[in-house]
Design goal:
Layout: H1 2-45, H2 76-87, H3 94-114, H4 121-135, H5 149-172, H6 184-204, H7 207-217, H8 219-231, H9 241-266, H10 275-288, H11 294-313, H12 322-340, E1 360-361, E2 364-365, H13 377-398, H14 401-411, H15 413-418, H16 423-449, H17 459-472, H18 479-493, H19 501-515
Antiparallel strand pairs: 1-2
Helix pairs in contact: 1-2, 1-4, 2-3, 2-6, 3-4, 3-6, 5-6, 5-8, 7-8, 9-13, 9-16, 9-17, 9-18, 10-11, 10-16, 11-16, 13-16, 14-16, 17-18
């Protein structure tokens, strides 16, 4: 009896032991395969990059043959390469780390080649990155258990603090202009490569999915912490008047994109003239700016845009798909031409509407510094609150009965109607809510700029807003914000490349859609 039990146990343990040994041997082989690529990346990071001193000065971090006197004191993109080379030794990190290395090395090698300088560290780092991508394997991310509240709150606070650092570093990467940093464009693109690798590594280990589940379970706490972190942006390296202006402009377009996300992402109604509602809110607020306080002007702009949204939505009840896109495109073009011709003397025509006063609160103008905070901080804070309100509207509508009706219409309008959904009323309501949010954003836009002209509301702006919704993720709450931020930060930072700016911008969009076809924040 005993011998039989022992034999059976031994017979079971034998295959299990052999399986464990084979698994360990496979893991050890994979670990060895990652070493050559990681070594090449580290060698490339610690090698000279530019062969000569460029006219604009030494290439970043003294990485030239003439000024390479501190090979181990690396900063900037070379420090990123060192970090990625070390991270590539981890089991799941080789592939995303290699992708980041390829982006960084290619950007700087190509930049130096365009300046007529030979890169020595670039080809070595490129070879290491390619080897890591080739040797790395895509494995399913592990699932981490959700901890108790004592761990959740510090984890979410740390995650949002890291997000604040990432946003600030992205805005400030490469400086503000080519005059202050002739290599700024390359440094910005290289930092994007590092950010992509960092997020890829966190995703490979299941950290991003874990944090997303935590934020969803503790939504109220997450929103409060996220708002607090957003308000702390002026205290970071991005706390300058220039970046506050850029960030507030992004906020205006993000709120507008959230309204479009209701129309396109939830209801599935393709709107190619949506920027007209932004213009209606802006022109309405501009005409009332000298006679009524800003809250009244903003409310009037939102109401006017919402009513015209109903006017546009009503004739579209019997059209769908491409025909709906043509109708909305026609509406946007009609608005643009009417504003250009100063219809009714309300738009200023070619002269625009200048002299719009800034928003004031208790005698404090929003375009002035507030203590140690930079000029434009109040506009930035206002747009943060506006975007937060728009996101709250979208989140509540998405999970409401109306939101479910929109999703049903988006999936199949005929089936939705057969199931008892009042499709006509739901479609008009989608246009109403989306246009109202755009009108409110337009009112803030007018007071922030101080002048409103028809040039700001042409067809290309509608396409950009639609691209922001699609790239960010249709129907998702943070998708429109992420998409709008990307589409308005990239052109601003890529000005360093002058003639190549639009080409690089388009290439970035193609890569995003190829790698994330459902958007950066898919539902």
């Amino acid at each position: 009896m005993t011998s039989t039990d022992t034999g059976s146990t031994t017979g079971v343990r034998g295959p299990v032991t052999r399986a464990r040994r084979s698994a360990r041997s496979v893991l050890s082989v994979r670990s060895v395969r990652r070493v050559p690529g990681a070594v090449l990346v580290l060698a490339g990071a610690l090698s000279p990059w530019a062969s000569v001193v460029l006219p604009g000065g030494a290439y970043p971090d003294l990485a030239t043959l003439h000024l390479f006197d501190a090979p181990h004191l690396v900063t900037g993109f070379r420090l990123h390469l060192v970090l990625l080379g070390l991270a590539a030794l981890l089991p799941r990190a080789a592939r995303p780390a290699g992708a980041g290395v390829l982006i960084i090395a290619f950007v700087h090698t190509a930049f130096l080649a365009a300046l007529g300088a030979v890169s020595f560290g670039g080809p070595v780092a490129l070879a290491g990155g390619a080897l890591l991508v080739w040797q790395g394997r895509r494995e399913p991310a592990p699932r981490w258990p959700l901890p108790g509240r004592a761990v959740v709150w510090p984890a979410l606070a740390a995650a949002f603090a890291g997000l604040l650092w990432l946003v600030s570093a992205t805005l400030t990467a490469g400086g503000q202009s080519r005059a202050t940093n002739p290599h700024g464009g390359a440094e910005f693109l290289a930092f994007l490569g590092f950010a992509v690798a960092l997020l890829g590594i966190l995703s490979a280990y299941g950290v991003l999915a874990w944090l997303s589940a935590l934020a969803e379970r503790h939504r109220t706490f997450s929103v409060a912490v996220l708002l607090g972190c957003a308000m702390l942006l002026p205290l970071t390296g991005a706390g300058t008047g220039y970046w506050m202006t850029v960030a507030s402009t992004i906020g205006v377009y993000a709120a507008t994109a959230i309204g479009l996300n209701i129309v396109v992402g939830l209801a599935g109604l393709l709107d190619l003239g949506y920027v007209a509602f932004l213009g209606i809110g802006a022109f309405t607020a501009a005409n009332l700016a000298h006679t009524v306080p800003f809250p009244v002007a903003a409310l009037a702009g939102a109401v006017a845009a919402g009513l015209l949204g109903v006017v546009v939505g009503a004739p579209t009840l019997r059209v769908r798909g491409d025909y709906l896109a043509i109708v909305t495109l026609a509406f946007g073009e009609i608005f643009f031409r009417a504003a250009q011709n100063d219809l009714g003397g309300l738009t200023g025509g070619a002269n625009s509407i200048p002299g719009i006063p800034p928003i004031t609160l208790f005698g404090q103008a929003f375009d002035r510094p507030v203590g140690a905070l930079p000029a434009g901080f109040l506009y930035y804070a206002l747009t943060v609150l506006m975007v937060a309100g728009a996101m709250a509207v979208l989140a509540n509508l998405k999970h409401s009965r109306t939101g479910r009706a929109w999703l049903a219409i988006s999936a199949d309008e005929d089936v939705a109607r057969a199931m008892g959904v009042h499709t006509g009323r739901a479609k008009i309501l989608a246009f109403l809510v989306g246009a109202t949010l755009a009108g409110l954003a337009g009112a803030v836009f007018a007071h922030k700029l101080g002048t409103v002209g028809y040039e700001s509301f042409d067809f290309s702006e509608s396409v950009t807003l639609l691209a922001a919704v699609i790239l960010g993720g249709m129907g998702t709450v943070p998708g429109a914000v992420v998409g709008a931020s990307l589409l308005f930060v990239l052109p601003e930072k890529l000005r360093e490349f002058s003639d190549y700016r639009l080409m690089l911008f388009g290439l970035a969009l193609i890569l995003i859609m190829r790698l994330r076809p459902k958007g950066l924040v898919s539902s």
